[in-house]
Every structure is written in C-alpha cells, then in structure tokens.
Amino acid sequence: MQFKQEQMEFVNQLLYPILMLKKEREEERPSSPLEEQLEGIVEEMRQMSIPLEMYKDDILYFYKDDILRLFFINLKTLLDYQSFEEYAEFLQSMDEGVIKQQLMTNIVKQDEEEAAVENKVEELLGNQFAFLDFLKNLPIDDTSRWNNFTIMSHPKKFVEDFIVLHETIKPIFKKVYAEYLPILEKSYVEFEAAIHEHPKILSEAFTGTKEIEEIDWTSDKISVVPTLLLSDFYFEDSEILLLGAKSLEVIQHVIQTRLDKQQERINVFKNLGDKTRYQIFCEIAKGTKSVKKIAEQLGITSATVSYHINELLLSNLVVQGWNKKECTQAIHTALITEVMNGLMEDSLMMNTVENEE
Q: Does the residue 343 lie in any domain?
C-alpha cells in the first residue's frame, strides 16, 4: 500500500463538502443500524459540516448530482495533483469543448438502455433540441434536468463557479483539516498495522464482497488516502482506497458485531440441543401455556419444565408475559428468524439439494 500523504490535503479539500451531502441525506432517511451503533462518529461528521451551512445551496448544486460531482472528483485524476491551486489551473485551462464532452458523457451514461455512448454523445453535442428531448426522458428530477441544460450552455462558468466555491470555503477547511491531520495520519498507520497483523480483517468485515476478498494488501499498486469522511471505506477500481479516519474502528465494530451474533446463534443451537428442552420449546410454540399442561404432555415433572423454561428465558428463545393474572410464555419468533437467516449467511448455503438440482 502507498500512503498518498502529498495529495492528502488536496483530496480532502475536495471531499470535505460531501459531509454536507451526508447530512442532507441523513435528514431525508433513517440512519442505518450500523450508523445508530456508531452514532458518535456520525455526530462528529455532522459537527464538521456545520461551518459549511451558509454555503449549503452551492455545495449541494455541485455535489448532490453524481454527474456534476464525478466531473470534478475522479480519484485517478486527482492523484496527479498536489494542491487545489494546481488542480484549479488545470480546470481553467480545459477547452470548452472538452468540458462539454466529458459532462455529456456522464449525462448519457445515466440512460441504462443507451449502449453506444460515444455515438450518442456526438449526436447530442451537435443538436440542442435532441439534447432537450434526451433530458426529458432521463429518470432524474426537474432541478437536475435544468441544471444539466444550463451547465451545458455555459460550461466554462460552471468550472469557474466550482473553483470560486472552493476558494471561499478554503479557510473553513484549513481549520478543520489542521485539527484532524494527526488523526488522519494515525489512521493510516493503524490500518496498515492491522492489515499486516490480521490480513483477513477486511474479508471478515466484508464477507461475500468478492472484490475486497481478492485484494492483495501488500501490493504497492494500492493508493490509500485517509479522509475526513470518518467512517467511509471506498475503493475505485480496487486501486485507490479512501480511508475514513475511523474506518478501522468501524471495521472492527462490524467484525465484533458479527462474532457476537454468531455466538448468539451458537448459544441458541446449544440451548436447543437438550432433547427435553427442545420438546418444551415445541410445546410452547404450539400454544401450550401452563407448566402443568406441558409436564403432562411430556410425562415429566413440573419442576423440570420450570427449570428448562427458565433456561429458554435466559437465552431469549422464549419471552414471558401476563395473560390476566396468569404468567405465560411465547416463542421469540424474531430471534428465531434472525438466527436462521444468520445460519444461511454464515454457511453461505450454496451447496444445497435444491441448487444441485
């Protein structure tokens, strides 16, 4: 792995506004279970984005639309530059025709049915009316549609406005970056150490993600950039890794959660491994409510039934409630479903009779 320290500040300057986008999306949708468990990290990113509030509309204009954001943030291209000033000089030197062609290519790629992208780009570049018709049929909102049209009409201004935005927010970024720089540098050191000491750590965290499982982490072809996107872990073409400053913490949390869930499943199967307890569990599942009735059904003592029910309660396989004045038990169906789904995931259940047929 190569630590791209020279490009780290520049890349982070371009990525910093994405925190505003993340905040916007979090307000539109519920947090994921992982984000809820790691809410401290999520809250930290929210706090980092607060100084950007006054520039929210401009940031969302350039960053919310994938087409526009990807025009400026192509990781392979970015690693050729070591400062925003150097990159801005390149952007300003771009020919208007080149800007339009790159933007049009990104726009056309939104149409999943369009196979001949290059031919379509050439056709639309030379025909404004055809471009309007094409935009009308794209699965995007009206605001994005209008933005795409106006930008293609004034591509140089689009680039200049992006540069102005970053020059404006640069003092804010510099302050945040200076505060987090030691954390970013430490994150790479810890990540590199973890990879060497526990080479399977990522495979364990991202079970089933073929691209990550097949990566040779000792290869110098992998460029790593620690970022202010604290919990992100993003690959581009399996060569460039954007490493959140607390990604390792998140990865370790994912692994520990998986191990805890796996132990929970083991405990469930272990608990049901006792024949009498399994029979009692089945009686409860059938709706038999009283300890006495279960004892009669199975030909055992009420004390034995009570002991096993207590063990089932402790393992959360059975939940207790009250029906009028009577204490009753019921199967914890949500846990059973989770355990069975977990078994399928753990074993990857590919080699089954059904699949063989």
A: yes
